[in-house]
């Protein structure tokens, strides 16, 4: 389960970076903000999983 969540976090981060870059390219502030939000969500998920791993080992 943890591996699945970690990969989900990486995917959210990657999608967020792509969306942010696309938003900047076309000058769309909303898309840029949504990209940053997706990156933050991925960062939070990744931090949660790292915390879980710390208690497992």
Sheet with most strands: none
Beta-strand share of residues: under 5%
**Separation of the first and last Cα atoms:** 16 Å
What global shape is seen? elongated
Assign a percent range to the helix content. Answer: over 70%
Total DSSP E strands: 0
Determine the mean pLDDT: 90
Q: Identify low-pLDDT runs.
A: none
Tags for this entry?
57 residues, mainly alpha, 0% strand, CsbD, CsbD family protein, YjbJ_sf
Q: In brief, what are we looking at here?
A:
The protein has 57 residues and is an all-alpha fold. The chain is 93% helix and 0% strand.
Description of the molecule:
This protein has 57 residues and is an all-alpha fold. The chain is built from 2 helices and no strands. It has helices spanning 2-26, 29-56. α1 packs antiparallel against α2. The longest helix has 28 residues, at 29-56. The protein is elongated.
